[in-house]
Amino acid sequence: MGALAALRELDHTQRHTVLASFLGWTLDAFDYFLLVFLMPYIAQDFHVGVKEVTFALFLTLAFRPLGALLFGRLADRFGRRRILMVDIVLYSLLGFSCAFAPSLMVLLVLRALFGIAMGGEWGIGASLAMESIPPRSRGFVSGLLQSGYPCGYLLAALFCGVLLDHIGWRGMFLLGALPALLVLYVRRSVPESPVFEHRRQSGARRGLFATMRGHWGLFFYLIVLMAAFNAFSHGSQDVYPTFLKLQRHFDTHMVSMLTIVLNLGALVGGLTFGAWSERIGRRRAIVIAALLALPVIPLWAWGGSVLLLALGGFLIQVAVQGAWGVVPSYLNELSPDDVRGTLPGFAYQLGNLIAAGTATILATLAQARGGDYAFAQGVWIAAVAVALALLAWFGPEARGVRFGGEHGAT
After folding, report:
1. Residue 186 in 3-state DSSP?
2. Helices 282-292 and 252-280, interaxial angle, to 10°?
């Protein structure tokens, strides 16, 4: 189904729901990726190395599973919409608070707490959107929702490129309060998930362990799969601005411009492969996107000019976020109804936990080779792309399954 056809399938209310879920993930990612751009400046201010500051990224990723479990269970019990609003306010306030950190230790604590709030948003927003739209629209909407992540990265790049040299890293964190305004839109325009409302009215709700009986193997598979997915995305993004600044010696403006190009590629990939998965299947779309990264690595990591680096950055993210564009629909379709607020987000964030050390590992590999971030990123992405393709190829699929009824993976 094409993009226009998928949008025509949605009524006015469903479009509001999709937009709110998209913006929630976009602004969540914006708050996260601010730190990616600010690491060298924070390191200089606190008189530590960049490697020490990357621990803040690790803590954010490591605490996200706790948020996915906590907020996911609340969403399965009290509804997607209400808990989504609480979560957005929390991650906005915590991102804002980082501007006032008096030391690296305090910043680390705040980023860990931010990770809890960030961990809750994706699963709730994705389940709210997927439960509110027609099955034939899931592929396109999946790509659209996941494109919120590179959109957040893109916003962070734009704001940093324009404002960082003028207001400093603390001023950039003050912008973290902006996502809280989204709550006003959700409150006014977004209804509760119809699938959740049906379950609530019918009283047909089961507990976590009763619902998961017979699904634990799937749960552990999804954790491993999402570990590969997160190693794929964070390996291509988290130290990329540092690579451009420290190894290629670009100024703030050029780092921002190349990161913008990278995220334009991510948008193209997410939307294209998400929609394409409706025709060729979720697993096949993931495999093709992951393997497309392999021939692009030399251009992305070792391009000899700004133009070649920009082209490589664009194409690598078409592949990386192309694979990711399938994830919201894939995980939600595999999830039983009674734990759809919890299972996709919790599996996603546990995978994130496994991959949480990606930035630190890449920084360590680069430093061991005299600051060669290109080598570290290139080897990492090649290995992860192959692993992800194999995991997806041998995994289950439930494309087009009806929510609110019995289903099984195929």
Report:
1. helix
2. 150
Give domain limits for the chain: 9-195+215-393
Kindly report the three-state secondary structure assignment for every residue of 61-107. HHHHHHHHHHHHHHHHHHCHHHHHHHHHHHHHHHHHHHHHCCCHHHH
Q: Are 342 and 124 in contact (CB under 8 A)?
A: no
**Cβ-contact 131, 80 below 8 angstroms:** yes
According to DSSP H, which parts of 190-251 are helical? Answer: 194-202, 208-212, 216-237, 240-242
Find out whether 163 and 171 touch, Cβ atoms under 8 Å: yes
Token reading at 398: 């439930």
Residue range 349-394, pLDDT digits in tens: 889 888 878 888 888 888 888 888 888 888 999 999 999 999 999 9
Among the four given CATH numbers 1.20.1250.20, 1.20.810.10, 3.10.560.10, 1.10.290.10, the one describing domain 9-195+215-393? 1.20.1250.20
Neighbours of 249 (CB within 10 A): 8
Residues 176, 167: Cα–Cα separation, whole Å: 14
Task: For 186-196, write each residue's pLDDT tens digit.
Answer: 888 888 888 77
User: How much is the pLDDT for 410?
Assistant: 39
- Per-residue model confidence as pLDDT tens digits over 199-232: 776 655 656 655 566 668 888 999 999 999 999 9
Give residue-wise pLDDT tens across range 81-123.
Answer: 889 899 989 989 998 999 999 999 999 999 999 999 988 888 8
Nearest to 263 by CA among 18, 24, 29: 29
Alpha-carbon distance of 257 to 240, in angstroms, equals 12
b/e per residue, 324-355, with b = 16+ CB within 10 A? bbbbbbbbbbbbbbbbbbbbbbbbbbbbbbbb
Of residues 98, 97, 89, 144, the one with CA closest to residue 121: 89
